[in-house]
């Protein structure tokens, strides 16, 4: 019974961590699907979101929900500004140039945070308190519950948005074929800005949830979860929304189980090894579309 | 200007590259002789050489072979630690420091080459971003493994463990070389600027000769159009692997050189950020352009030092410079301006993309 309980507990932890990865991965995958670029600065937007929420709650004593909304608003504006200033002029440039620019933006955000908020580690107060639910011997923290719930809600909302609304359909059209979308009267630039806005708002949510579960906050907080979420997006098939979700949750579960049952120091290595094996068997990710090469 | 034949043009071009490196070396040596090199720059000389070699080797994969690699620091790491272990365990067997440095670099290059082969075989089956993410994954795996590895040496040879220093069970008189997350802590510094300069020359020679050989033309053909190249009988895996392993070998030697410049070095030095740093050198220097890589690597390694005056803001300035350079070099107006001045070849026509 003890072993089973341990496994269940770890499964819950894994799903909760995976949900955070999934929310971040959604941002990566949407931007990749439409702008065909790897937005390396995404991880740092997460960090900015967490800091905004931290100061809103700590210094200005705002209600947690207001603080989260404020963080989302700031990140949305930030995402749109970044897109406008750094990525938009490079629409026609080779993808590597855009990649390096994204890295530049990532350095910029990290170092601005270092100057503004100093390098000392902040202890993030959980937005939903530290309590936990008990079902028999099983205990589920409130943070885990809220994280999973947020992930499911976001997933459903995004699915609805992309399949039913006009803007969502425009996004799918752009990711399919930008030229044709333009001919159909879709404002491609606005659609891309919108994608960045949504992705960055999600990043803020992810930042708050991440720091609620793992309460240390510093200017480099976002980079490793960013890389892992990017891995999750590729794992599930980059460009696919359900893929990002599946990839994120699987990655979280693998990480927690590797930490609990194999080795803490090697857990990252195991996560990446699983990724490599999956990509070798299915080169375009779990749910990715296989594009056949034509001459 | 008189039109030169392609062969002559290449010769002139390559001579400029070699000449530039040699001139930089001689000028720096003269300045050092007169004590005009600041201590901070003095300390940067070997790292500059190591990063130049890293940039040249990554350019072989990213620029010349056309595959984005995000894990190049992994090979640097393999080279660094195998090199240091070799140098430290042979401390008594080989008294000459110069020879020991050479042994370290050769061992580092060999181990990195083997790692390159092991990584390259699966990785090169993938394409584009998937290939990039798998190289990133391998880089992280290498970092993680070295992070838990303990290596020691005593009278009976090398001991390995993944637990802790005590598990090495060294005889008295033995010493632990690699101590897990702490890395190497008691290295004897052997690297010299001259050794770095020679390694840079070797790297340039290897890459330029490879590019201008039959194999190099095959690699370029595969980059430009894989399907067409394969249809005329060029084996993609073979040539891409050749470029990848050569690149890993050079990165390993650079890693050994880099590590031998410090008394302590840990695995976390060679993380994703280092891979990215080298990629930045390659992209800023120009893809496939060896001379550009050299200049970019040297300048960007020195740049944070030059910005000491604005200490707190230097990484911020670095980031802004990076973004502005990328925006400026890809701006059609500025490109047109340069091509009109005749400084740069006219940019390729937009929209001519292969299907």
Can you tell me the overall shape of chain A? globular
Helix content of chain B: 55-70%
CATH architecture of chain B: Orthogonal Bundle
Major pleated sheet of chain A: 2 strands, antiparallel
CA-based gyration radius of chain B: 21 Å
Brief account:
The complex is a heterodimer of chains A (295) and B (355). Helices cover 73% and strands 4% of the residues of chain A. By secondary structure, chain A is mainly alpha-helical.
Notes on the structure:
The complex is a heterodimer of chains A (295) and B (355). In chain A, helix 2 packs parallel to helix 4, helix 3 crosses helix 8 and helix 6 crosses helix 8. In chain A, the strands form 2 sheets. Chain A has a two-stranded antiparallel sheet. Chain A has a two-stranded antiparallel ribbon with strand order 2-3. Chain A is 73% helix and 4% strand. Chain A has a domain of 206 residues. Chain A is mainly alpha-helical and 295 residues long. Chain A is globular. Chain A is built from 11 helices and 4 strands; from the N terminus they run H-H-H-H-E-E-E-H-H-H-H-E-H-H-H. In chain A, a hairpin with a 2-residue loop joins strand 2 and strand 3. Chain B has 355 residues and is mainly α. Chain B has a single domain, classed as Orthogonal Bundle (ABC transporter involved in vitamin B12 uptake, BtuC). Chain B is built from 13 helices and 3 strands. Chain B has a 3-stranded antiparallel beta sheet, with helices on one face. In chain B, a hairpin with a 2-residue loop joins strand 1 and strand 2. In chain B, helix 3 packs antiparallel against helix 4 and helix 3 packs parallel to helix 5. The longest helix of chain B has 28 residues. In chain B, 42% of the residues are buried. The C terminus of chain B is likely disordered.
